[in-house]
Request: fold
Amino acid sequence: MININRTLTIAKKEVIHIKRDRASLVIALILPIFLLLLFGFAVSSDVDNLKLSVYDGSKSIESRELINSLNNSTYLKVYEYVNTPDAVEKSLDYGRTKIGVIIPDYFTTRLRRGEPTDVQFLIDGSDPYIAKTASSYSALIVNHHSQELQKNVIKQKEKGQGIKPYNLLLYNPTLESSKFNIPGIIGLILQNITIMLTAFSIVREKEKGTMEQLIMTPITPLELVIGKIIPYVFIAFFELDMTLILGKIIFGVDIKGSLILLITLGTIFLTSSLAIGIFISTISNTQLEAMHLSLAYLLPSVILSGFVFPREAMPKIIYFISCFIPLTYFNEILRGIILKGVGFKELFQPIAALMGLIIVIIIVSIKKFKKTLD
Reply:
């Protein structure tokens, strides 16, 4: 028979323990609400306001009406006008836009003659979901605009007259999901394992009581941090190499860009993950707390980094939050080098953002670590 009083006493003792462990209490009560709100807004398969670059070779009333039709939809928004068709593709290379439209010089001439004419859409195929959506939206809008034009045309000479959209998918023309997923998975593996391993490193010393012995030695905080992360740097390099090799052998994902640039930027990204792991380790008192805090960071980063769901579909406030996650920029870098084959110049913006975040994270981590030692 169960003794109710003894059972309640144990329960009371556990409640006191939970109340004293405020970090776990906050994680248990607040984290589910935070994740629900965050994922509720961020997890969306709707893609709106895709950035559009425009080359208008016709520069006529008819071409401007077509551009207005594209811009007035909720799916596409004109981001920039360019002067050459090649500049449209460059805009996609730099990641400024996801879709570009090229209106040829003969567009209006043919339209006024009652002849069929065409426009070409260049679509970033590195994200198959966005590519499919952009392809459907562009065709839908142009076909609707063409039908409206035909209603107003008095001299209708032949069937098929109007505007025909031609879509060209760049970078991943077959829209293979593995080519989109594998680069993101590489970044995810590097981040998750590095943060989890590092997060336990210092807090383990606290639990075992060996941190005091280390503090008593002449070693400085910076030396201690560097010494702690060196083994994990080698582990992370091994992970980076293995994921790239297996991605090539098993999934057939080639690296179109520079391998040296990829490894260099991968090293920079690993530095941020190590610094985050050290920060979590310094603010945790137990390994259980470190695990909870790691999950509290890793779960949102998976959703908000654009690994699964397009960031373009997220509300502005969620999009703003995603700008403070290093994995967001590393995903752009990975897909840029592996799928697009672009270099440092095209990736300067995400590289600069990643570097800025890393500097802040390292400064905060070292300051917090020094304070912990004090």
In short: The longest strand covers residues 117-124. The mean pLDDT is 79. DSSP finds 14 helices and five strands in the chain. The two ends are 52 Å apart (CA to CA).
